[in-house]
Amino acid sequence: MKIVRVETLISRGAFANSPEWAALRDEVHTAVRAADWPPGSGSFTIRPESGKKRGEGNGVKPIKDETIRRLVRSGLNHKARTAAGQPVLHNEWVAEAPWPVGERIRPGNMDAAYYCDEGIVCLEWETGNISSSHRSLNKMCLGLLQGAIKAGILVVPSRALYPYLTDRIGNIAELEPYFPVWSATPCEEGILEIVVIEHDATSDTVPRIPKGTDGRAQV
Questions:
Q1: Catalytic: 126?
Q2: Dist CA 45 CA 200 (whole Å)
Q3: Per-residue pLDDT for 147 more than 70?
Q4: 10 with 183: CB under 8 angstroms?
């Protein structure tokens, strides 16, 4: 998988310039780049098929899940650790940690989170539509505003990858007009970045990436 662009919307304070953030950022980028299709191929080749019609196009969830597995070395998500009576891991990535903001609106879980002395680093991989992308960025900005998170990273497809995925998935082209809004979040310290991903190649001979589900929607 290629990272074709990293858009830094917010970078303020000591943590943004720290070696720890640089290492975490590199860790995320390495996990993203390691996503491949077909599995084990070492590169990301996608079937160039539009996702507008039901039963066609490629899913997103298997790509996200592979990246999260690479980050979460413990193999357990937040809910499983809680059920097992285990504490939240410190200085390690954990999957499906609850959002620390907006409890009244049931904000759901972060795809992955890293708990460190400076605060929480949040990773979201977009599998929903453009409204979902806006919600993710808004929750990150609220977390930065309230001091509930230290950094937020959203992974979205490029304009070139977008047509081959689930129809109407959130993408960089539709988010870009709103960058000034998110960049203006009033926080003294924090980081907000968007990582834009793209396939390495296309081929009609590779299988479609299967679609998972998010509620009733296929992703």
A1: yes
A2: 6
A3: yes
A4: yes
Least confident range from 89-93, 136-140, 172-176, 192-196: namely 89-93
Residue 39 has pLDDT above 70, yes or no: yes
Q: Is the Cα dihedral 18, 63, 40, 72 positive or negative?
A: positive
User: Residues with Cβ < 8 Å from 97, sequence gap 6 or more?
Assistant: 77, 78, 88, 109, 110, 112, 113, 115, 120
Q: Which of 124, 126, 193, 198 is catalytic?
A: 126
- Starting at the edge strand found earlier in the chain, the sheet holding 119-125 runs 2-12, 190-198, 151-157, 119-125, 109-116, 93-98
**Cα 138 from chain centroid (whole Å):** 14
Q: Where are the alpha helices (DSSP H) in 43-189?
A: 61-71, 78-83, 130-146, 172-175, 179-183
**Residues contacting residue 41 through CB under 8 Å, at least 6 positions apart:** none
Q: Which domains does the chain have, with CATH numbers?
A: 2-202 (3.40.91.20)
Which pTM value belongs to this model?
0.91
Question: How high is the pLDDT of residue 143?
Answer: 95
Q: What does the alpha-carbon distance between residue 148 and residue 39 come to, in Å, rounded to a whole number?
A: 36
What does the block give as tokens for 14?
Answer: 């000591």
Q: Please, what is the angle between helix 19-33 and helix 61-71, to 10°? A: 140
